[in-house]
Structure formats: structure tokens, C-alpha cells
Amino acid sequence: MKRLRRSKPRALPAGRGFLGKQNFRTLHPRPQDRAFWVRGKDRPRICIPIVETSVKKAVEAIEQANSLADLIELRVDYLKEPKLAPLMKNRKKPLVITNRRKEEGGRYRGNEQERFRIFKEAVELGAEYVDVEIRSRRSLLRDLIANKMDTKLILSFHDFQKTPSQKELRGLCDRMSQLGADVVKIVTFATSWEDNLRVLSLIPFAKKKNQEIVAFCMGEKGKMSRVFSPWMGAAWTYTSLRRSRSAAPGQMTAWEMRNIWERLR
Hints:
Elements: H1 24-27, E1 46-50, H2 55-65, E2 71-75, H3 84-88, E3 95-98, H4 112-124, E4 129-133, H5 138-146, E5 152-158, H6 166-179, E6 183-189, H7 194-200, H8 202-207, E7 212-218, H9 223-228, E8 237-238, H10 254-264
């Protein structure tokens, strides 16, 4: 009777790990892996920020992102000469128009009236979403809410230092909802693994109130919340087009995120 040999596990090509380096198949998907891109009604969604400084480069980046993203965020605060019309023309995916102020991790340094002029122009051009910080000047915010027509408002909050208590986060979520947010977006910085659980708990909290929400943590310890938030019911998560175009700490590439999701199935 022959003794069966234990087969050695097949070595994968040298590459990158789960949340760190990219592996071979992530970078070079096979034709038979096309089913990987077919996602159902409740599929998790990805939003890719465009963080280019010129309209020409932004148009090129949008073309590249179309095959990977479910939504595309146009970071107007990165543009040296903001021009929305050519960027929104012939778009293939829903656009989120963001003009992030310096205090919340953005690059915009002008006055608030001019910043909100961009949002108003986006509404007039028929943008699907505008992302506005809850700490914006209240009179300008209320005016935008009253005149947003068919554009959906993402009311956002960012904390780049810490994750507030669960009581504070839930109170914030309720205030944003009461102001008229179509989508509540709460993003904090994870200084511990437990911070992820606190922020992710906002998703069922909001869903019970029929409030659409995006919630996750930034930073190296916050990566797990970026991965799991859409599976828990968040509207989407954010990934970069490539590593050199990351818009926030801990942001993975779209390829990395899709690869992790596939492994979790």
C-alpha cells in the first residue's frame, strides 16, 4: 500500500500582503476572474477620489477610474483652476463634488462664499452629490440645502486626531440627519482597534432610522473599517486609483479593496 505524499502548498508569486503590499493576481487579473467584477444588488460600492491639480489630468484620471469605481469623487480643492463643466460632461459614473476646506484635510484656502459657489455650480450642472462639511458656515449650508434640487447632499464630519465617544458620534449623526443630509458621512482617526467598532456601530444605528450613511476610520488601524463598512450597510467606501493618489491616511487602492472582498466571500 503506497503512502500518500502530502502535497506542498503552491507558492504564490512574490507580491504583497492582505492590507499592505499588492499581490500578483490583484495587479494582473486573469480573464477567468471576470466574474469578480459582477456584483449584485446589495454589492459593496467603491468611490474613487480624483486628486489631480489640472483639468486635463483630472479628465484622464476619471477615464481610468470608470472601470473600477461605482462613484467618482471630484476633489475640486486640488485643482489650480477649477472648471466643473468639462469634468462633468459625458460622465459614466455618479459624481460627488467636494471642495474640502483646509481645516478638514482639504486644500481650499479661500473664503466660504467662493467655496459654496462651486457647490451651487455643481447643483446647476446636475451633479449627483455634493459633499459639504457640517462645520461649514450655517447660513450658506442652509441656503444650499434649500436649493439643491435633484442633487443629494452628503453632510460630512472628519476628525484627524481621534474617534469621539459613541454618545458623541450618535448625537452627531442625529444632528446631521435633522439638518437634511441625504447621506451622513462620519470619518474619524483610529488610535486603537476598538475605535473601528465604535464607528461601524453607527451604520446599524443610522439604518434603523432609514438614514443613508458612510462611516469608517482613517489611519493604519482604521483599514479594517474601510473594508467592512459597506458589507454592514454603508452606502460606499473610499479607495484611491493608485497609491500615489491616496486622499486620506489608510486609504487603500481599488485593486486592493476588491481583492480583499473577493477573499472574504
